[in-house]
Amino acid sequence: MEQTRSEILKTIPYGFYITGVVGADGEVNGFTTCWVSQVSFEPQQVMVAVRKDQHSHELMEQGGVFSLNFLDTEQEDLARRFTRPLESENGAVGGSPYKTGETGAPLFEEAFAHLECRVVGKLEAGDHTVYLGEVAAATLDRPADILTDLDTPMEYGG
Hints:
The chain is mostly beta strands and 158 residues long.
């Protein structure tokens, strides 16, 4: 039964994003995430689930802001890079340059679109925390199709 539930849960399609965070001391980080969804029209809000054992979870708690950086169908390598711990230096995380957004969250330049959010709520969900973010700013650098788990052998779920 557990195996069946896991296999069914793995069939839910997800986009891949780099979630950017900044800590109270200005430390910047990013990580690949796929558990993301819009949850409200007015105000515009999204939710993102973050593993509690990630360093980025601590930064999200401190900074209270995050960015969603949208990846296109040709950026699987970038999504894979951000699945592991990366160093932040000289305006880049793991070699990926970013600019600082209106909220202070990093906007990764390789992404085709960005949402900046302020955390307005959270819910403990087992080994993750679900953060509710109100959209504060948005940029679209170019039209593109979002990278999803259907485009790659990568999976996160089950």
